[in-house]
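For anyone still unconvinced, we reproduce a single protein record, the chain in one-letter code, the fold tokenised, and leave readers to judge:
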Amino acid sequence: MKLEQKNAVVTGAGSGLGLAVAERFAQEGADVAILDLNIGKGTQEAERIAKATGRKVVAYQVDVANKVSVQKAFEAVERDFGAIHIFLNSAGISKIVPFLECSEQLWDQTLDINLKGAFLCCQAAVRSMVNHQVGGSVINMSSQSGRAGTSQYQAYCASKFGIVGLTQSIAQEFARQGIRANTICPGVVFTPLWDQQLEDYARKRNLQPEEVKPYFENSIPAGRLCTVEDVANAAVFLAEDASAYMTGQSLMLCGGAHML
């Protein structure tokens, strides 16, 4: 139980990577606030995790790109849980669109959710950590596309590169207050988000949708895709005391596809 007596907040935790991390945090002894735009799904998963782990797990609705929504959600979390010890940002979107076809609307939406949303939520989480003087661990979900650009992901890459810079800035500013900030950069993980863009990626590579997974497996030195368990393991490490001397870093979880 590596996270006993810790309160964790996870955004985008109604599904995908955020859900896997929230569940693992609870299994490791943390009480967990699940933040998601889809409050129905968030509540359903919170109740399931609470029943399975015996931890306090509560869902809150939030639009991470809206400052008022973020403030209200974090105020509710502090009221119900007290100090925030761990914050993990996983809310995000991804679209595969050729550069010359990327609309201003898609660009703004991607940066608003992925980068502005991370900024607003990190600000709220760090403010709580500072006010309660508990130190803490901030973990932002970037991507291998936040360390090495790739075609037809212009808005996504820009947002995820921005996450790395945001995280390093937080790490520099708050290290003396015991607040650490690190980034997880997963490779391809087949979550519901990836399911939505499978056909677009297949089109990009002139593949059939069923050929995409073998294509990735053959191109990754480790011979397999990243899993939600891989990400959850990294998140626990960055949240616990074993990583107490690590801040401002980016963990690449891509099976050797990129070595930066």
Summary: Residues 7-191+227-253 form a domain with the Rossmann fold fold (CATH 3.40.50.720). The longest helix spans residues 104-132.
